[in-house]
Automatic annotation (TrEMBL):
It comes from the Bacteria. This is 4Fe-4S ferredoxin. Residues 5-34, 36-66 form the 4Fe-4S ferredoxin-type domain. PANTHER family: ADENYLYLSULFATE REDUCTASE, BETA SUBUNIT, FERREDOXIN III. Coiled coil: none annotated. InterPro entries: 4Fe4S_Fe-S-bd, Fe-S_Ferredoxin. Keywords: 4Fe-4S, Iron, Iron-sulfur, Metal-binding. It comes from Clostridium boliviensis.
Amino acid sequence: MSRKWYPVIDYTNCAECGSCIEMCSHGVYDAQKAPTPIVINENGCVEGCHGCGSLCPNGAITYVGDDTGWTPPNGVDDNTSCGCGCGGNC
């Protein structure tokens, strides 16, 4: 888990679909606020994971600490692993 890697939501682009909350098995988002994605556990995010950002239909999720060159794909799931190695559903 990381203190220097976590999702940032651009609420002007967020459709509040809840896909990010549903896919994250690390408790990063407040499930009580679904479908609005509220990050409550930044330390729960796995460094290098782009799982929620890759699912976002509007590309509204970026990450603090991301220097990988990844850009939000606007919901295009290319069926590749998020790379976090967590064994969860991301």
